[in-house]
Amino acid sequence: MTPSTTNGFGTLYGIGVGPGDPELITLKAHRLLMAAPVIAFPAPIEGESFTRRIVAPYLDGTGKEEIPVRMPMSADRFPAQEVYDRTSRELGAHLNAGRDVAYLCQGDPFFYGSFMYLYSRMADDFRVEIVPGVSSIMAGGAALGAALASRNDTFTVLPGPLPAEELAARLATADAAVIIKVGSHFEKIRGVLAASDLLSRSRYIERATLETECVLPIEEVDPGQVPYFSMILVHKRGDAWKT
Amino acid sequence: MTPSTTNGFGTLYGIGVGPGDPELITLKAHRLLMAAPVIAFPAPIEGESFTRRIVAPYLDGTGKEEIPVRMPMSADRFPAQEVYDRTSRELGAHLNAGRDVAYLCQGDPFFYGSFMYLYSRMADDFRVEIVPGVSSIMAGGAALGAALASRNDTFTVLPGPLPAEELAARLATADAAVIIKVGSHFEKIRGVLAASDLLSRSRYIERATLETECVLPIEEVDPGQVPYFSMILVHKRGDAWKT
């Protein structure tokens, strides 16, 4: 975590910008975003960065230096080690020149995010500070209008790419769960939920907190139209969850 | 979710105010807090509300009507149904009179919070909006300086009051986990971690994001000094976690 800014080096901030609604960034994230001269963020190989779009109302027109970190968005291609190697050198040059860098992360930086790949490369040599953010999972509970977990419930986060047998085994023992990174894995997951008799206890949520937010029973989802950033919430007991 | 404010009734906002640092409330939480004429929040039977203290820099001196919802903080006494019955009537009177009410929740309103008890009583009769917040779990990852979960890790949230056998069984199959509501259950949990050979893979975190934040190896924790709002993070694989 050394050297500090006081000796002339910049600080790298890993900033959670929340699930999508620009108003769901924290006051701290907003302050650091406005103060940093260099802003970096994940982006697809071509086109607009969803992460940058979250803060566009604050960032547009400021004239800051922006560094889109472009890589394939497909989970199968992660981690793109050479991209992180190159990015850590580029950001390090700014820090060595005394410029703070804000690296924006959708949701929270350390919860299934890509920031850890930069953190592991840079935290020994530079001052790095993590600013936690609102996870899309909490946004999913708000969209559904039902508690994710309560009292002594266990709550399990399950990545959608896991094999069907593992998803089924873990759902069998969970009180409540969220399946993330649904995308192209939707049909496999629907099959697991059906075989586990959990369809009526599950809800599909996409683009939580955006104007295009959508909450659907599993049977009404078009499997061809499921984005990577979607989730399925499952609860075995909560009254609000029963169809 | 009806009636709406346009017909003269107020809206009840369930607002997550984050883990403790006043700067980790969202812009939306701040806006609604400043706009609402009536502010309610959980509080102990006697003394200061930790939830209110998070927003004290913004709330102090505004002269808003404040409603501390006082109840025993001990998990064993939850839920205090009569307190929620009475509070829902009190808040409903404000809403019927056209006054918006902001109900403040530590962390996120629907993630192991008490707001669900008011939501279940009031959502049929009033307009209720949930504002998700930063969970203390994400704050714990930031305090530790290590990713909570990555790629296809599963991540399990385990309440500390669960029996030792259940904690052990769930930790045996988890990739990464957080044990919440540690408090008086610390010695039981330490025993489970030792028997599971997970002590070197675990970290104790208390008061994350506050100035008194503290991260300790399990063996260095004084069991007599563990607050209810503390957590233990466990990760089977992450390099940063190994003592």
Give an overview of the whole structure.
Two copies of one chain form a homodimer. Chain A has 243 residues and is of the alpha/beta class. The first copy, chain A, has two domains: 130 residues, Tetrapyrrole methylase, N-terminal domain (Cobalt-precorrin-4 Transmethylase, domain 1, 3-Layer(aba) Sandwich); 105 residues, 2-Layer Sandwich (Methyltransferase, Cobalt-precorrin-4 Transmethylase, Domain 2), CATH 3.30.950.10. The first copy, chain A, is built from seven helices and ten strands. In chain A, the strands form two sheets. The first copy, chain A, has a five-stranded parallel β-sheet with strand order 3-2-4-1-5, with helices on both faces. In chain A, α2 links the parallel β2 and β3. In chain A, α3 crosses α4 and α6 crosses α7. The longest helix of chain A has 16 residues. Chains A and B meet through α1, α4, β5, α5 and β6 of A and α1, α4, β5, α5 and β6 of B.
The gist of it:
Helices cover 30% and strands 21% of the residues of chain A. Chain A contains seven helices and ten strands.
Q: Keywords for this structure?
A:
21% strand, homodimer, alpha/beta, 243 residues, elongated, Methyltransferase, Cobalt-precorrin-4 Transmethylase, Domain 2, Cobalt-precorrin-4 Transmethylase, domain 1
Write the layout of secondary structure elements.
Two copies of one chain form a homodimer.
Chain A: E1 11-16, H1 27-35, E2 38-43, H2 50-59, E3 65-70, H3 81-96, E4 101-105, H4 115-122, E5 127-131, H5 136-144, E6 155-159, H6 164-173, E7 176-180, H7 186-195, E8 202-206, E9 214-216, E10 230-235
Parallel strand pairs in A: 1-4, 1-5, 2-3, 2-4, 6-7
Antiparallel strand pairs in A: 7-10, 8-9, 8-10
